[in-house]
Amino acid sequence: MSDVVVIGAGQAAASLVARLRNKGHEGKITVIGEEPAPPYQRPPLSKAYLLGEMELERLYLRPESFYADSGITLHLSETAIAIDRADKKIVAGGQSISYDHLALCTGSVPRRLPAAIGGALEGVHVVRTLKDVDEMAPACTAGKRVLIVGGGYIGLEAAAVCCKLGLKVTLVEAAERILQRVAAPETSAWFRELHKSHGVDLREGIGLKRLIGDGHVTGAELADGTTLEVDLVIVGVGITPATQLAESCGLEIDNGIAVNAHGQTSDPAIWSAGDCASFPQGDTRMRLESVGNAIDMGELVADNIMGANRAYEAKPWFWSDQYDVKLQIAGLNTGYDHVVVRRDGEALSHWYYADDTLLAVDAMNDSRAYMVGKRLIESGKSPAPEVVSDPETNLKALLKA
Question: Are 210 and 221 in contact, with CB atoms under 8 Å apart?
């Protein structure tokens, strides 16, 4: 029997420890998490939870009783501060815990605005943890003026929720267009119109110069010289992998904690999974920030701790809920050179191609396009673009071609 210690208590950690027990692991399993809550879902935080439509317990990935019943020890509200690789021990909560296998599922941290431009003022929020949202919620009341910095998915989701709550929303994106890093101009344009139709004052190609306030934020100066009066600010400018602990003990870092195809770090007794981990993909390395990746990598590491010797095959998928729209994304659009638009009644999807190869699909309220596209990409099939764009084409038939 081997003892497994997991640092981090998010989706990857929860998936890893549940898989270990399901596979019959009989050794000790210990999970160390900085937050007081057991592993919980993060995507609903800025949506259903902030809207008051989901209670705290419904966020939990598993009931609290699951861990005790499964013989999994949770050390919550504790921070791991050191890893002794030679003696295979970690230090957390004032105690030393031995391991045979250590899994780093430390996740990621949100980028914050520099204090020099007002990022440390009260009323400036990020969206990552329960604490973040609980601190933000009292200010999210009808009539308040909110500035959202960043036009990625986090910023757009925050804008949608704030609109639903009756706030006056201004969103600024320094890049030329919203979603510029992750989506085609066609998808950006569609979501631009969606947000404008809900009253969002959306300003693209305009960055934030500084926030204004004496203790609490009261305004913002934009790069074009415009000034705004604001009651709160929500920052959604991306996340960075939490690698500090791994770095401090000398593990290899490469756009995250570098792991091999089996999830092992440069120390074979230490594994990593989720947002914090980068893995080999062809001739390069990849790091995915998604629930799907956290689940899949967590389960991979569990299997390989149990001796499966299984290599990771990433199957990227993502989603975003904004207003009454569910965006579902299959694949990765990196390297695309053209986009095929498919309309089927109210449903819309954008299909990314590199030459004749299908890379990814953005599906807006079109679950069929998403599911078919996902299966096509995973099986290596690429239907002709003109076939995809034809609304008369039966998408499911493409799977049999």
Answer: yes
